[in-house]
Structure formats: C-alpha cells, structure tokens
Hints:
Layout: H1 9-20, H2 24-31, H3 35-43, H4 51-61, H5 80-85, H6 87-94, H7 106-122, H8 125-142, H9 147-166, H10 170-183, H11 187-203, H12 207-221, H13 230-249, H14 253-270, H15 286-299, H16 303-312, H17 323-339, H18 343-356, H19 365-376, H20 383-392
Amino acid sequence: MPDHPEEHIGDRLRSVRKRRGLTQKELARGAGVSLSLVSKLEQGELTDTRMETAHALARALRVPTTSLLAAHEEAEKAPASAEDRWAPVRNALLAPVDTLDEPPTVEGLRDALTAAQPLVVGGKFAELGALLPSMLRDADAVAQLGVEGRAVRIRVLQLVGWLMTQTRQFDTADIALERSLDDASDRLQAVATANAQCWLLLRRGRLAEARELATRWADEMEPRLSRATMTELAAWGWMLVRVSAAAIRDNRAGEAEDALRLAHAAAVAMGREYAPRIDVIRTFGPVTVQLKLAENESISDRPDLVLKRAERLPTTALQAVTKSNGNRHLLTVAHAYTRQRQYAEAVGVLSDVRKQSPEWLPNQRFARDILGQVVKRRRTLTPEMRELADTVRLPL
C-alpha cells in the first residue's frame, strides 16, 4: 500500500509516471484511457477513479494496482431507495432475539433453507429478501438449541451476506458475515464464510485485504487431493479463485495464474460441478474455473482470448454453475465484444442477461460501464439500448 495514504491517486500516479519516464500522453495511450482523465487525476480535479481504470493505469506503469490506491472502496453503493427496500432484512439482523409464540425447530429452518435455494438459483432477490427476516428470527431461536442449531444459523447468515453483497448493501453484508464467522465451530463452516467475505472485499475494491484473507484460507484448507472430500476440494478451489481474482486486479498476473492453476487441479480432481447441501452459491468445479480464466483474460485486456474461450464452452456449461457466476461470465463476453467494436453483439448479450436476470443486472456497475462504452460510440440509440440504460441506471 502507498506510504502516504493521505495523498490522492493523482499524486501517486504523477510520481510513478515520472519515474518511468513517460509523458501523460504516453501513459494515457498505454493504459487505453483519455489524456484528459490522466491530466485531471494528476491535477487533483479527480481524486478517485474506478478500480478498472486504476488497474489499466497500473498495468501500463508496470506496478501493482494497490500502489496507486489508498484504502480504496467503490464510491457507489446502492441508492437510498434500495437501502429502504432491504431495511426489514437489516432490522431483523440487528434486532434482539424475541420470544416466539411458536418456537422453530432446526429441521424446519433447514427445510426453509432448502426451499429458498431455487430463489438463489433464479436470482429472485425480492422473494428471497421477503423470507429472510423471519428466517433470521428463527435462526437466532434455534441457535440456542446447540451445535446443529448454530450450524443452520451460520448458513442463514451466509445467505444474508450473499444477498446483501449482491445488492450492494455492503455494511449489512459485513455484519452478517462477521456473525457467521463468530458462530463457526469447524474449518469448513469458517472457510465458507471467509469465501463470502473475500467476495465482499473484492466488490468494495479492497484488493490487498481480499488477497491476504484468501491466501491465508487457501493455505489453511490445502488438502491431499487423493483423500479430500468434494466439499473440501470446493472450499479450497474457491479460496484459490479469490486469490486469483484479487491478484489479477492488483496487476500480479503470475500469482493469479498460479492460483488458478491450483484451482484447476482441484476442479479436475472433483470431475464435475458440485454444491454442498443447501448451499448452491458455493457451486464449484471445472466450468467455474474456465469462467474465471476468461474473467482474468478480460481484466488483462485480451478480449480475443475471452471470446475464443467462450466459444469453446459447451452450450450447457452455464447451466452447471450458479446464475450469478454465469451472468458475470456473460458480462465478460459482452465487454470483450465491446473491446472488439462488435457493439451489436455486446448489446445482444446484455439484453439476454436482462431478460433472464432482471433483478441481478441493475446491481452490476460493470454492465453500466459496458453499455456506456457502446452508447459513447453510437450516434443513435435503439429502443433496446434505451431499455438497457434504464435497467442499469445509465444517464442518457
């Protein structure tokens, strides 16, 4: 991290650029950004920038992304209206435990978690959010019944953390995941929560913390491949994926490649996509690794390789992974089309995602960035583009 965090990114950018002997114009060209942006950053007219832009500048300067950033957190959270929408979940998470007229049972709450899995798979955020307040109250009650009750509460809290991270309710997600980690009584419970915490840190742009946490848990969970269970392999594989995701965004390509190579070994040992019981959000296997390879190629600005990898995937591949991971891959493909100036194809992919996952897409800043690049290069906008702009809240 920078030695002087009180400096803004422009100070650090100017210092590194001069040490590299580059002009602002040369840096802008190498990073694929505008000269105006570099100038405004260095002059302090802009004091922050998107993580993707910081990564592009760092790649051009051949330094880690975190060397340009102070303690960075994505500036944009969900709008206030969304915070109001999720207030019942947040209130149930923070409320003291009430005495319930009809005490819940561990079996009943476990059945409720099972019944909620199709909502997770289908990206039905509103329906899932409607169930969670009562599930949280029941979880607090059954946790008083012993180890099995606490194990079920852990899963409920992980589910809350997942949904709140998806919908950019980051502070609420953090509380849920911290409580889940406090309840954990074994490594598999703890690493499942750590996996979600790493994803939360990545969405907040806190690369160094995500990388450190993921590395620690990957080392902790490294199994003997010949004896490991599917759950152990999936847990280890996911932590390696998180290491890779943090490393590639921090311009540490070698480390990212090594982590995904090990994740691929775990996936090969598994032989197929696998999800622990009542936990589809932790689905992991060979297809998941392929999607993450494509994502890393996108971040490394190799759109041609992204499209080639996507073409090689079987048509049914995305059905084997979680909906959110499949959708994220489609955004990666749309971004690759945009980088190749195939704008119609990019809009087509975005439209397909909107039709399939209308509650997921509005929470993706990446989608708005992709569409913004398309709109910038088009003289006229089609009705389809305008509908997408409304969905991702892109001003026209």
